[in-house]
């Protein structure tokens, strides 16, 4: 009833090529963004900002980057954690080594160096495919772990190998309180989200998808695999690098290579698989699932225990959290192999017909 | 199709529940002193994390059994970090505002310590890192909110070298010797490097650095290097499963266990129990206490808690090294509050900021410690604005195949070496962060 595009005629190419062609979509997204910027700050407390929303925003951004590579271009990568690390450490070095470096430029510089590393480790993708490529990208992970632990220059020769930043500000606007950090990350996410959404609809995005669906056929119709694959690596690792820089600068404030370990790479890959491969929306769902669900379970279980008068020990809660989380992953993958984003589109389809399904 | 609908419904329900839960997090104000407890009872380091957590919680329970801190009851809540920095940060955010506000955090992981060091000053909550964390945070002039009470890793490293020198018959005998540092490849493991390098330059021994990646079960290549270079001593800066693996590898390589020294995280029962006789002769440093099953405090815990089934964890682990570590850390947390009450009013609940003053002005004399049940276990600890460490005593204990026994007298770390290092590192941190040293006036407040 509410969600149908009947009667929305497109009379120009411009109207036809909008990011959100359906008016309801457009308004819903605008409302969502406006709510995120204006509404959320009034509704949530510091804990929500710091422990849930900020990590969620940053990891959504990272998942978005990984989705471009894995979901849109079909190149399975296990090096995402490494690209995040490159982003974080290079942003750190740019930030402290150049006097008066603006924060945003430093973060983008982190992304830039991540792009270089990403493209370099993407070169094997021209020869190896699928799982073999996943193994090849593992090399990036191990190499970066090694480099940031061993090469003193990256950590400004700190004895412990851990680095930290503080007093962040953009054009005199300091990024200190949880709200400011949240808005800062949100701004990044919105800009990159819209850019990514636009990019995957463009010629280059279609090339990625052609390569993903069948690279031989794509090559036959004139798509250069080298160009398509390397651009996917470049764009993906840029976004992942910026997310890594935000994770270090804004969320943790002080970090060590362990913050970007192989676990992080797997986590990002799972976000993409559970959220939905080849879907921008799916990146957000996946990030929400992986970031929020464990924390939710961790607090929900003792609360349930209290209600029925049982006190559950910390270890049991933690174990149960893992079991339920694992079971849910398996269950979602069986029920909906195309990820949460598919559920979303099913819901939209149903809404189109509602309330008269026949 | 049914299943898919179910999936859809669950997703919506879960989202709804999540938002409902968030609104229940709102806290009630109580008249209790709240101590958040960050623990890791699961994961790769659980065998060592569990006894620590049990000791910590038992001490807090004991404080209540003794009638609270000048009548103020204590409350606590555990949060599982799994030794992961991001979960640790989440726990910190979750607990810092609960039950009237957290008194003090003990991160129990060098990684989490680093992350919280950035956050704590903003929230005005002190951090105690008794024996671990960043060594330079002993400098209270720069690290206003950090308290590495009763020892740091630099103290530990320094004393290990002293003990080696003593065994060799004097510091001059160290010249030309070869010491290998096998360390956990993380900020924790790397903390040992500066002090050993300093000592190596001073005495002219050769130091080789052999990193072991987390979690430390893969050490074959490390031990191949040790077999080739045959260092005179091996210093083990390990944690969790890395320690027992190291001892088994040493046994397989035939490296004498008497020549291996562990840091205090590598000198507890879970580290050596599985190896048993194979670890006989293995030395580890203790930051004051070791296994203290005969001490008054342990007897009191057994009588007041475990006898009434109110204890935490298995009874026979009470008094083991890491359990004692938990007790000892909780004792500092509580005694700081008691000290703060002297200034801000007895029988009142202290805020984090007030408690910080207490930690900075701790004066645990021997009679006070004895009264608390730590006779023969601890030596006096007294902190000041400049010195947030308070004591630099340590001992060495040795595994005899079935239990830990002290094998050395008390040592004191060489302040002449450590002080300048702490100051230099703290100044570097201050310069990076653009913070200025606290003025004497700030110290008074």
UniProtKB/TrEMBL annotation, chain A:
Can you name one GO molecular function term for this protein? branched-chain amino acid transmembrane transporter activity
Q: Where in the cell is it found?
A: Cell membrane
Q: Which Pfam families match?
A: BPD_transp_2 (PF02653)
| InterPro entries the UniProt entry points to | ABC_transp_permease, LivM-like
Mind telling me which residue stretches traverse the membrane in this protein?
27-44, 50-69, 76-95, 101-123, 130-149, 181-200, 230-250, 270-296, 308-334
| Keyword terms, alphabetized | Cell membrane, Membrane, Transmembrane, Transmembrane helix
The UniProt entry's GO CC annotations, sorted and at most eight, read: plasma membrane
Top-level lineage group:
Bacteria
Q: How does it sit in the membrane?
A: Multi-pass membrane protein
Q: Which PANTHER family match?
A: ABC TRANSPORTER PERMEASE PROTEIN, HIGH-AFFINITY BRANCHED-CHAIN AMINO ACID TRANSPORT SYSTEM PERMEASE
Can you say what this protein is called? Branched-chain amino acid ABC transporter permease
UniProtKB/TrEMBL annotation, chain B:
Membrane spanning residue stretches: none
Q: Which CDD domains does the UniProt record give?
A: PBP1_ABC_ligand_binding-like
Entry keyword annotation includes Nucleus = no
Alphabetical keyword list: Signal
Question: Per the record's keyword annotation, is Signal included, yes or no?
Answer: yes
Q: Where is the signal peptide?
A: 1-28
**InterPro entries found in the cross-reference section:** Leu-bd, Peripla_BP_I
> What family classification does the UniProt entry report for this protein?
Belongs to the leucine-binding protein family.
**Any idea what this protein is called?**
ABC transporter permease
